[in-house]
Design brief:
The complex is a heterodimer of chains A (115) and B (113). With 115 residues, chain A is an all-beta fold. Chain A has strands spanning 4-7, 10-13, 19-25, 31-37, 43-49, 56-57, 65-67, 73-78, 87-94, 105-106, 110-114. Helix content of chain B is 0%, strand content 48%. Classes of the chains: A mainly beta (115), B mainly beta (113).
Chain lengths: 115, 113
């Protein structure tokens, strides 16, 4: 099993450009998450999904959109990138809620730079 | 979800036992305590989880006192490869609080030779 994979690994954007980050998991997990991590900071939850066709806002959702059309995929979109969105983005998945008792499996991350 | 407090950083030497304490004074009855490890340029990795008393696996031990207001992650005989950030999370099972997941800044452990 590949676990959780993320595409791309690195990306440089200009302010105002758009892009989509793809997360895929092959563990048949119900829950999927998108986090961002800034230098010296912990992870902050952007959006999450509790199942196919569902999405919900996390702690820092502004400037991002997500879609979960297939159970195994969770897409994170930036419609108009801003320098403040320069960060490392992590995707994760779990069988059930990750708040307790349900291990989250993380992808390798996508390093995004917005100029 | 319960707010957690951890030391920002800790130093240790190879071969020593390291104990990282997490405070969670307002832990709820149905909350579990989970620890993650994150190496540079990688996503976090689950280490251990517990509800009360002591839990041990091949990587670490987790000590939880009777009042559950704190927990201690114990790493036996650390090596240079244990240099990482360690996060303490507290929360219940179930979907109701998923949107409030908080990893916090974690504890940066630096193991020296």
């Amino acid at each position: 099993n590949a676990g959780v994979t993320q595409t791309p690994k690195f990306r440089v954007l200009k302010t105002g450009q758009s892009m989509t980050l793809l997360c895929a998991q092959d563990m048949n997990h119900e829950y999927m998450y998108w986090y961002r991590q800034d230098p010296g900071m912990g992870l902050r939850l952007i959006h999450y999904s509790v199942g196919e066709g569902t999405t919900a806002k996390g702690e820092v959702p502004d400037g991002y959109n997500v879609s979960r059309l297939k159970k195994q995929n969770f897409l994170l979109g930036l419609e108009s990138a801003a320098p403040s969105q320069t960060s490392v983005y992590f995707c994760a998945s779990s069988y059930s809620s990750g708040t307790g008792g349900n291990e989250q499996f993380f992808g390798p991350g996508t390093r995004l730079t917005v100029l | 979800l319960a707010k957690t407090t951890q030391p920002i950083s800790m130093d240790s030497y190879e071969g020593q036992e390291v104990n990282i304490t997490c405070s969670h004074n307002n832990i709820a009855t149905n909350d579990y305590i989970t620890w993650y490890q994150q190496f540079p340029s990688q996503g976090p990795r689950f280490i251990i989880q517990g509800y009360k008393t002591k839990v041990t696996n091949e990587v670490a031990s987790l000590f939880i006192p009777a009042d559950r207001k704190s927990s201690t992650l114990s790493l036996p005989r650390v090596s240079l490869s244990d240099t990482a950030v360690y996060y303490c999370l507290v929360g219940p099972h179930g979907s109701g609080n998923t949107g409030k997941l908080i990893f916090g800044q974690g504890t940066t452990l630096q193991v020296k030779p």
